[in-house]
Write a structure and sequence with these properties.
The protein is α+β, with helices and mostly antiparallel strands. It has seven helices and 15 strands.
């Protein structure tokens, strides 16, 4: 593993901050200062930053937080258009955490963040159910219901997508569950459960039927729920949630438990 990656994965420093530390001669390996950005950390190496040893995390050693992402923020480190990112809003102690998946600029709600890249990968690649509250500007049709039940392949998935999206078609699997919560004034409110979370999947799905998503809020990821966490606030997992997470990571339970 490259030296900057090793530091960022096992400490509070971002990869960019690790590069600066290396450049400034504040990193040494086995008590030898290393300024070679391509240096590969070996199994028996001892890495020090400012004299403090950076110890590799165990594969499933993890701290995780729930963040209620507000609308109008991006899940990215930096935006070339200068828009607000979650890392402008998060407390400093969480700014090196890795987001589990994405919520787009106009979406809000539950976003999991972790300090362990192995955990991030495991959760992102899982089929854990994600639950969303949605408001669309159409009355729910039988066609929508059939597609939610049976899945659908969008040959042209550009509607509902980001302008620069390179994804032209998309298969959307049957929803894990859905409920129409109310309909009035030509609008509908739904709660839906999906297990894939593809790029703007729900916006593309409803756009296929001529409906715009007016509101989209994720309220659960697996058994971890947003509940009454205020917007732009964080919380650590509860003991019960950590117990579930550790069992899931070790393969003792699957996504359905």
């Amino acid at each position: 593993m490259r030296l900057n990656k090793f530091i960022s994965h096992n400490s509070k420093y971002s990869r960019r901050e690790a590069d600066k530390l290396i450049e400034d001669g504040k990193v040494n390996v086995n008590r030898v200062t290393i300024k070679d950005f391509s240096y590969q950390v070996q199994k028996d190496d001892r890495v020090f930053v400012n004299g403090k040893e950076i110890k590799p995390k165990g594969k499933w050693e993890v701290t995780m937080v729930v963040y209620n992402k507000p609308k109008g923020s991006l899940v990215t480190k930096k935006d070339d258009r200068g828009r607000t990112t979650i890392y402008h809003l998060l407390p400093g102690k969480f700014r090196h955490f890795i987001p589990i998946g994405r919520l787009d600029y106009a979406s809000e709600g539950l976003l999991l963040l972790t300090d362990n890249v192995n955990v991030a990968t495991k959760l992102m690649e899982s089929n854990l159910p994600r639950v969303y509250n949605i408001k669309i500007d159409k009355i729910v049709t039988q066609e929508m219901i059939d597609a939610m039940k049976n899945g659908i392949t969008l040959e042209d998935a550009s509607a509902g997508a980001h302008d620069k999206s390179k994804i032209k078609s998309m298969h959307i699997a049957p929803f894990e569950g859905f409920m129409v919560r109310g309909q009035s004034g030509g609008n509908s409110k739904l709660r839906v459960m999906i297990s894939e979370g593809k790029n703007r999947e729900l916006r593309r799905f409803f756009a296929h039927f001529g409906a715009n998503v007016l509101e989209l809020k994720r309220v659960a990821y697996g058994p971890i729920e947003l509940n009454n966490l205020p917007s732009n606030k964080t919380r650590y997992l509860t003991t019960k949630e950590y117990d579930w997470l550790h069992k899931f990571l070790k393969g003792e339970i699957d996504a359905d438990n």
